[in-house]
């Protein structure tokens, strides 16, 4: 079987991603594991698939996010968690995802250690939002997402601790917090 062929920009991204080691993460203080899928749609102009969380959710309502969530006891790995959550939230079949690898885990403000999993998806895959969890599904051009200058730092002081978050916009979507940090980290890893 012949390996798939990708548009030049996506082939370059794949090479840079696979040739660079993930940035070392800081020592985690969070012990509850979680994972998200960073779905890259293999269009002629590759895109990132993002969601906007349902406004009815208790945690992070209305925020832009990747499909993902906490690790269940039966999940054998972060990849299994990310694929399961992507199927639950936006109906991406696990067998439709080609896993490229993982980024180093990040700590969330809600006590989770989140592992981002990068996966490629054919443009033929249909996405269907689980309305209980997802208000909207949208795509962002990969080259725009990976432009480091689009992420603006903001230092937050809370409970006697300082930490930096990143803010960005895409069309009418406000991308910030964990999602912006994950995209920014991916952009740093593949930048030359």
TrEMBL record:
Stored PROSITE patterns: NUDIX, NUDIX_COA
Residue ranges of domain Nudix hydrolase in the record: 31-162
Gene Ontology MF terms: coenzyme A diphosphatase activity; magnesium ion binding; manganese ion binding
Sections of the chain in a coiled coil: none
Record family assignment: Belongs to the Nudix hydrolase family. PCD1 subfamily.
Cofactor(s) of this protein: Mn(2+); Mg(2+)
This protein's UniProt keywords: Hydrolase, Magnesium, Manganese, Metal-binding
InterPro entries registered for this protein in UniProt: CoAse, NUDIX_hydrolase-like_dom_sf, NUDIX_hydrolase_dom, NUDIX_hydrolase_NudL_CS
Gene3D superfamilies: Nucleoside Triphosphate Pyrophosphohydrolase
Domain of life: Bacteria
GO BP field: nucleoside diphosphate metabolic process
Record-given protein name: CoA pyrophosphatase
SUPFAM superfamilies per the UniProt record, alphabetical: Nudix
